[in-house]
């Protein structure tokens, strides 16, 4: 048992959570697509397939990757030893039990109990180190993890009370909280990766004001979804989304370097971050009455931005933190292209053809399948 706890895969949080999150991403979307097309032979999850899909994409898949990233980044920020060994195994098992609970014939109350511990435990582990090191500039990340736990409570309460509107608002608030977290973390690491990847001199320090405005406005967007302000178009809300979109575009303009188009680990991050701009501009158009379906903006965020940025980030972080050369294989580069096509298919094809959903799901599953094919050995083996 001691040897199992000391295995390389449990040496740092990114290893088990990137593996588990990527595998779950491929499996969950495959199950969802098979069910949509009437080809799923298995038993439906507790509460129905729609409730499961809504909950598991942000609170199962995205949260696993966020946990893996932060459990690796926070030790770097604080200089403290990261969670490893049996404590890390315990946290992984809490996440895994929550995923399996949906397939067990259990009461709704027990399902809720099994879902709730993961995010508070993650917040406690991260908060303990951040507070001990006095890293005040990272406290907003801790706040967002805590708010994500609140969104999960809202979602599960909607499931327990059969309140579809409450469940939907909790999920959408969570997605936009993830977008806010992506803007904070992406604003730190993407320009750093571009500078390091192209051997450019450090850029002059940018004003912190746009980043702070993005953080506050991103939190306001999440709150607006939680309180149902996005249930119907409200022209005044389009101004908030226009502001966020303009700040994202300003970042993309500042970060751009022609050399990055030769480096897959850079253009994949850059283009995926660009989907954030697409999603917020689409929301602005919807609130202004210029776009018919809010779901197109939601899936531009969920598939293009969150899915794409997660795939690009875990590919880059896994190589860097295992001591390997930052040269991705052809397979994972193909995965980057497939994820971009998945986003385009979900947003542009679905309004015109029901086959767009199936194609987007196939492309998504293939992209994460390629990651698992090329990175499972990397994440299981010791650092080079």
From TrEMBL:
Coiled coil stretches, renumbered: none
Keywords from the UniProt entry: Membrane, Transmembrane, Transmembrane helix
Pfam families in the cross-refs: NnrS
Keyword set includes Membrane: yes
InterPro entries to which the protein is assigned, alphabetical: NnrS
Transmembrane portions of the chain: 12-37, 57-74, 86-103, 109-127, 139-159, 171-190, 211-229, 235-253, 265-288, 300-319, 331-349, 355-373
Name by which UniProt lists this protein: Uncharacterized protein involved in response to NO
Organism: Pseudomonas mohnii
């Amino acid at each position: 048992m001691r040897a199992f706890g000391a295995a390389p895969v449990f040496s740092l949080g990114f290893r088990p959570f990137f593996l588990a999150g990527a595998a779950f991403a491929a499996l969950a979307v495959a199950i969802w697509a098979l069910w949509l097309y009437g080809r799923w032979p298995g038993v439906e999850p507790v509460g129905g397939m729609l409730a499961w899909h809504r909950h598991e994409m942000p609170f199962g898949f995205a949260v696993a990757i966020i946990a893996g990233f932060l459990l690796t980044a926070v030790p770097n920020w604080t200089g403290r030893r990261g969670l490893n060994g049996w404590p890390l195994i315990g946290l992984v098992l809490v996440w895994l039990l929550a995923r399996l609970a949906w397939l067990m014939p259990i009461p709704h109350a027990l399902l809720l109990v099994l879902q709730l511990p993961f995010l508070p435990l993650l917040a406690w582990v991260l908060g303990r180190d951040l507070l001990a090191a006095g890293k005040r500039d990272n406290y907003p990340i801790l706040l967002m993890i805590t708010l994500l736990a609140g969104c999960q409570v809202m979602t599960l309460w909607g499931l327990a009370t059969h309140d579809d509107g409450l469940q939907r608002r909790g999920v959408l608030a969570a997605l936009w909280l993830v977008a806010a977290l992506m803007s904070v973390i992406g604003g730190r690491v993407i320009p750093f990766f571009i500078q390091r990847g192209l051997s450019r001199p450090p850029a002059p320090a940018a004003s912190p004001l746009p980043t702070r405005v993005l953080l506050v406005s991103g939190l306001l967007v999440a709150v607006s979804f939680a309180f149902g302000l996005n249930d119907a178009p409200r022209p005044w809300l389009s101004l908030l989304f226009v502001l966020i979109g303009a700040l994202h575009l300003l970042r993309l303009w500042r970060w751009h370097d022609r050399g990055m188009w030769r480096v897959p680990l850079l253009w994949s991050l850059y283009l995926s971050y660009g989907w954030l701009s697409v999603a917020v501009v689409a929301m602005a158009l919807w609130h202004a009455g210029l776009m018919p379906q809010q779901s197109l903006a939601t899936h531009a965020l969920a598939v293009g931005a969150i899915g794409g940025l997660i795939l690009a980030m875990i590919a880059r972080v896994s190589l860097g933190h295992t001591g390997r050369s930052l040269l991705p294989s052809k397979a994972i580069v193909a995965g980057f292209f497939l994820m971009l096509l998945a986003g385009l298919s979900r947003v542009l094809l679905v309004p015109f053809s029901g086959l767009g959903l199936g194609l987007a799901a196939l492309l998504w599953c293939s992209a994460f399948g390629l990651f698992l094919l090329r990175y499972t050995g990397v994440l299981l083996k010791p650092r080079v």
